[in-house]
Amino acid sequence: MAAGRKVTMSSAGVAAALVALLVVAAASGATGYHVCNVDTDSLVNNCKSYCTAGSSEASPSGACCGAVRGGDFHCLCQYKGVLPKNIDANRAMQIPGKCSYGAVSC
Question: Where does the UniProt annotation place the signal sequence (predicted)?
Answer without folding.
Answer: 1-32
